[in-house]
């Protein structure tokens, strides 16, 4: 059902990622010009991510007709695989942004109506620096997901990717000027115009603008989910480097200066937790040599990769985060994440470099669908094998998109 007006007009808003999910949506990589060696290493990485998330909540992976059987054979049996065509597998950016309307609140549960936003997608910049020249199938992914779930839909002509925004669910959004104000997105809109649209469609009251994103993140023009994210209202994690000669240092410092001197929509001064960077990491001749050039943005050897631990996913009771094979730094990042999310289990993805080589990481390839119940008296941290009661509850969430129409 197509909804008229903006989400905020109907009292919808985007909930925080740590709210209870009905499921996670993912795509399936197959482009040989963006994923090396016929995408086989990347597919193994996607399987690792999907398997990790499926310990905490249902997962749906969407694969093309040519790849459906391959995906089904590789993915765990508890992961649903749907046939869906796409230009690539970045469902954070091509999938819908889900919003919710709180309909009924009691002492034990909060029942929500779910809707979705279909933004306009132009391959991270269209023909002016975008990642590929044909994005027609990706432009339909949000609609296909919402149609499949029978979720009411809002549409917007503004170009926006899900990785360019983070919200706290209490009225605050963080984004970057480098991305949202880039001329290859919405050249006809001013900063004030874009901020007003974010307020109308995300249901936020305040937008915090960081000047720039991660150094080397040319694919997305500085998505915020690579440099900063909310841990909880009033607290953020910030990608950090100590080396003042590193080109990222200036970017992280300017972000820190903005965050530490601003307040959120509730008037709280933000607490900033540094999450130290891996690397720096660079692409290798072997990795680039495994690509088949065609339509995607060319990859070159010895290019600095946009590696960050901030690009993690918050699942029901879990944190699924990238690891890069640097044991001391990976371990340090895991400890920071565990301290930031003491009630969640941290799972590090050992094959995350393969996702990084394609232009993003764990958060970029996942999209959460909120549950119709945003709070319950008890909620399992992990779906244990053989626990039929817990599994039945999570299975039921797959079939509940909208309550109390």
TrEMBL record:
Entries under InterPro entries matching the protein: Agmatine_deiminase, Peptidyl-Arg-deiminase_porph
Keyword entries, A-Z: Hydrolase
Pfam families, per database record: PAD_porph
Tree of life domain: Eukaryota
Record-linked NCBIfam families: agmatine_aguA, PRK13551.1
Protein name: Agmatine deiminase
Protein source organism: Sphagnum troendelagicum
Taxonomic path: Eukaryota, Viridiplantae, Streptophyta, Embryophyta, Bryophyta
